[in-house]
Every structure is written in C-alpha cells, then in structure tokens.
C-alpha cells in the first residue's frame, strides 16, 4: 500500500475543519448548558475530541467565544460589503435587517447570543469582545446609512444618522428578548411588517416633513 503524506495545505484544511467542529459544538453547548455549565470536558465530549485537542486550538473558553464572535462578525461585514456594492442599497439593507431580526426571533439563536451577552457583563475580556464587535458593526452600518443619506433631497445630520442606527439596533436586539419570552409569530407576516417599519425608519425625515408643513402653512 502506498504511503501518502498530506501537503501543508491539506493539513491546514484538516485543522480548520477540526476548529470548526469545536466551534459548532461550543455554540450548541453554550446555548444548552450556558457558559459556566460548559466545561472543556463537556465540550470535548460534544465535539468528539479529546480535552487536549480542544486546548491545542483554543487556550480557554473565552478564546472560543472570541472565535465565535469573530466568525459572526466576518459574515456580517461580508453582507454589508455586498449591500454597498448593490444597485439598490436601501432595499438591500432592509432585507438584511429583516433577515437578522427573524434569525434573532428564533429561540435556539437567541439563547446563544443572550448567554454571551450575559457573561460579558461579568467577564471583562468577553465584555471587550462584545463591545469591539458592536463598534465594528456600527462603523460598517453607518457607512451604509451615509450612502443612503446621499440620495435624500434634505440630508440627515450625522447625529440623525446615528439615531437611525440605534433605532435599528434596538429593534433587532429586542427580538432576542421576545424569543426568550415565548413570543412566536408567523415569519412571513413578520417579514412583511418589518419591511414597512424599516423603510419608515430609514426613509422618513423629520426635517423634510417640517419643511413641507412650513410651505403648506406659509
């Protein structure tokens, strides 16, 4: 039988697969048992790997959470980049925010995110990771909102654009809490309603309305 030696590229690919295997198991365990309830031994059993293997790829649980957050962050930034490059930026953003809102409304997704957020209030390192992700998302979203703002007849101020971002963030994050509280709605109907609400948040302009009222009453 011919002996076969893996190339460096193949070895890296295998390492990436094992790393992904750990992250996948960690998401499930954190969601089911919580951050503190998930020991490295529990994670090793769930991933079908040894404790030593886990430590080979990650120094501790915080490093695993950091990798999960980084993975999610990269996915979001890729979507944001695609939105900026599409012809209908507003429609692309509305569709993206609606997708994320619906994802957060599912209990299995809400559990993991809320567990990480809860631990971030007590764990300084996790707190910094969460804050860093939020700042990167904020910067990317503001870039999209400023592109949309350029097409307005009466542009929003920077402060108004930031308020729009906070409104969107609060709306999306709220679905995490609603999922835990047992709120279940038809996702198709929710999506249609979200399209209307999001368009209002992103398109409405108090300054424009005030100017129109002044013309009508003047």
Automatic annotation (TrEMBL):
Domain annotation HTH tetR-type: ranges: 16-76
Residues in the DNA-binding region annotation: 39-58
Pfam families reported for this sequence: TetR_N (PF00440)
KW DNA-binding (keyword) present: yes
Domain of life (superkingdom): Bacteria
Keywords: DNA-binding, Transcription, Transcription regulation
SUPFAM superfamilies: Homeodomain-like (SSF46689)
InterPro entries referenced in this protein's UniProt entry, alphabetically: Homeodomain-like_sf, HTH-type_TetR-like_transc_reg, HTH_TetR
PROSITE patterns attached to this UniProt entry: HTH_TETR_2
Name of this protein: TetR/AcrR family transcriptional regulator
Organism listed in the record: Thauera sinica
């Amino acid at each position: 039988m011919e002996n076969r030696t893996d190339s460096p590229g193949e070895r890296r690919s295998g390492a990436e697969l094992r790393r992904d295997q750990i992250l996948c198991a960690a998401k499930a365990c954190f969601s089911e048992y919580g951050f503190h309830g998930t020991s490295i031994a529990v994670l090793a059993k769930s991933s079908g790997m040894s404790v030593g293997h886990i430590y080979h790829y990650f120094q501790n649980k915080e490093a695993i959470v950091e990798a999960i957050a980084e993975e999610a962050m990269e996915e979001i930034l890729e979507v944001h980049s695609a939105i900026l490059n599409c012809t209908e930026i507003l429609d692309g953003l509305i569709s993206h925010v609606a997708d994320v809102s619906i994802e957060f409304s599912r209990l299995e997704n809400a559990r993991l995110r809320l567990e990480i957020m809860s631990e971030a209030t007590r764990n300084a390192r996790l707190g910094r990771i969460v804050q860093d992700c939020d700042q990167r998302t904020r910067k990317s979203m503001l870039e999209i909102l400023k592109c949309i703002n350029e097409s307005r007849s009466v542009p929003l101020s920077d402060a108004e654009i930031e308020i729009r971002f906070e409104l969107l963030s609060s709306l999306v994050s709220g679905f995490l809490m609603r999922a835990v509280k047992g709120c279940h709605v038809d996702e198709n109907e929710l999506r249609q309603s979200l399209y209307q609400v999001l368009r209002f948040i992103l398109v409405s302009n108090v300054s424009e309305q005030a100017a129109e009222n002044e013309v009508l009453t003047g």
